[in-house]
């Protein structure tokens, strides 16, 4: 058996707006969108993609799955993302080498220290 990761699906209330936020945040491209969802890819034809799907319910608890990103300069990236509308989040991580942020709809993600 062989499996390949195709997409990561993220529930949200405003798929197009959230996909456009992530497009600016990570430099990927929106490759498909309609009223029910929007898909973001590193480049056309590349995977995995991020698929933002419209749901009626609001996020209430910590994500069970989140994305980790590694920048060249952690502090500069954290500052840039906060400037775009991300917020710092305390999910009980304590003092760590990574920074937990949330996108405009509250989905947590981490900015790791450069490796």
Automatic annotation (TrEMBL):
PROSITE patterns: VOC (PS51819). Signal peptide: none annotated. Residues 4-114 form the VOC domain. It comes from Okibacterium fritillariae. CDD domains: VOC (cd06587). This is VOC domain-containing protein. Coiled coil: none annotated. Pfam families: Glyoxalase_6 (PF18029).
């Amino acid at each position: 058996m062989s499996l390949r990761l195709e997409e990561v699906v993220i529930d949200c209330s405003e798929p197009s707006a959230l996909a456009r936020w992530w497009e600016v945040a990570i430099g990927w491209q929106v490759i498909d969108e309609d009223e029910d969802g929007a898909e973001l890819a590193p480049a056309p034809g590349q995977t995995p993609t991020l698929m933002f799907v419209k749901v009626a319910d609001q996020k209430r608890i910590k994500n069970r799955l989140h994305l980790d990103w590694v920048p060249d300069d952690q502090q500069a990236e954290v500052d840039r993302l906060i400037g775009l509308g991300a917020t710092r989040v305390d999910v009980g991580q304590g003092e760590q080498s990574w920074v937990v942020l949330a996108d405009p709809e509250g989905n947590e993600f981490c900015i790791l220290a450069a490796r």
